[in-house]
Structure formats: structure tokens, C-alpha cells
Amino acid sequence: MNRQAAIEAFQEYVSHYDAENPMISDKVAHTFRVAENAEQIALHTSCPELADFAWFLGLMHDIGRFEQIRRYGTFADGQSVDHAELGADILFREGLIDRFPMEDLPEGWRETAETAIRLHNKLTLPDSWPGQDGGRTQLLCRILRDADKIDIFRVIAEIPLVQRAGKSRSMLGSSDMVLPGVMACVMEHRCVPRAEIRSVMDLRVSHCCMAFELEFPVSREIAAKQGYLAEILRMRDQDGLRMRDAVRLRQMQIVEREIEKAWGMKL
């Protein structure tokens, strides 16, 4: 596909939002990194010919974030709107997708793209998949979700919570300990439901738990090589927390141990 034309269409769309707002510029950077991650993951699957399509999905996946921040001043879906559903609506119901190049995309690509974008932020994927596309939609959904999670580790490591969360920062408490429900997710090697997150410490652990959901070996390799997850796990000062407390340190060490156990590798 014509990637330059796709990039120009994306940049034209986001030019209508406040470029001076770091939440906007951060999300633009995230978008391009997710596109790159998605391409790299796709190249290591059984369908490397989907790499262009995976890259395109990465470019599209967070379109809803820009309107979310304009309307609500936060990226917290629980306090605003499901950004994936909003983005899919903007693209496929309001017609934004028609501004993007479509050549060389496979037959039925619209349905696949809409599904992948709507599902990229959901806690789990459905057990059954409609359609007769030979598993393409399911594969691309899995690729996109991995690509997104990998770059979220970078976002957490590099960008302070007050800048990432906007208005929702004040909704989190400052508990010294991770809640039992959150630690149960760690021990069960699964993501943390939004309803379980009550404090900044819970939030940090929930971000680390995304590591359990990386499906492709290459995704784990990319995340380990980039080093952002290890940085989050070992940070001593972040997001207003002072990680000198022995209980907090021990909890993060448990999280790191469980991720290494799940991955079968050192971080």
C-alpha cells in the first residue's frame, strides 16, 4: 500500500487537534511505534504477507484517542468513552477511512480492520469468530493487541502519569500496597480488570501485567530487547511514588518473577 499517502492522511486528521498539548503529541508518537511493532510481529507469523495490513492497522488503531482528549481531557476510558469504539465509529461510520489509501489491501479488509480496531483495547478476545477469512481477522487482532501493549511499556516508562492521564490522575489513591485482587491477577498470569484498579500502585502493576497477554514469541523478544518493561518493574521513583518502601519493592519483585516465569526468560 502507499504508506506515505496513509501517513499524510493521518497527519492531516490529527492536525485539527492541539499540537501543543503533550497528550496529543505523545499519542501521535505512540501511533507510529505501534504501526512499526505490528509490522515486525506480522513478519514473524505464518502470514508475513499481512505485514502491510498490520502496519496500517497500527496507524489506525488509536484514532479515537484524539477526539477523546478533545472532549474529555483524559485517556481513561472508564471516565470518558471507550476510545476503540469511538475510533471505529469515526473511521467506519462517519467515513474517515475513505480518506486513506486502500490499494493492495486484501478482500474484506474493511470488516477485518473495524473488528481489529474495536477489539484492540478489550480485556479478552472472543472465543468464536464469524466469517470465512481463514483466521485472518483473529490473527490481525492478536498482532495489533501485542503491538499496542509493547509500546505502552515505553509510554509508562518515559511519560509521567500526570501527563499521560490528564484529569483522571486525581481519581487514583496512593495506597502503599497493591490490592489483593490485583496481586491475584499477577499470580494467575492475566491482565487486571479496570474495576480492580484503585491506586497508582495498582495501576503500575496492571500495566506490567499486560506482559502476560503478549501472545507471540517475537512480541516478548521485542519487549525484552527494548527494556521498558524491566525499567518499569525496577523504577524506584515514578508517578509520585517513592519506591523505597520494602513492601512496595517486594511486590514489584514478585511481579517481575512471575513475568519471567511466564515468558521463560530473564528481563
Name the features.
single chain; about 270 residues; mainly alpha; Hypothetical protein af1432; 2 domains; two-stranded antiparallel ribbon; 13 helices; 2 strands; about 0% strand
Notes on the protein architecture:
The protein has 267 residues and is mostly helical. The chain is globular. It has a two-stranded antiparallel ribbon with strand order 1-2. It has helices at 3-14, 22-43, 51-60, 63-72, 83-93, 109-119, 136-158, 161-165, 180-187, 200-209, 217-226, 228-234, 246-263; strands at 237-238, 241-242. The two termini are 36 Å apart. It has 2 domains: 3-150, Hypothetical protein af1432; 172-263, no CATH class. Helix 9 runs parallel beside helix 10 (200-209). Helices cover 59% and strands 1% of the residues. The mean pLDDT is 90. A hairpin with a 2-residue loop joins strand 1 (237-238) and strand 2.
Summarize this entry quickly.
With 267 residues, this protein is mostly helical. It has 13 helices and two strands.
Layout of secondary structure:
Blueprint: H1 3-14, H2 22-43, H3 51-60, H4 63-72, H5 83-93, H6 109-119, H7 136-158, H8 161-165, H9 180-187, H10 200-209, H11 217-226, H12 228-234, E1 237-238, E2 241-242, H13 246-263
Antiparallel strand pairs: 1-2
Helix pairs in contact: 2-3, 2-7, 3-7, 4-5, 5-6, 6-7, 7-11, 7-12, 9-10, 10-13
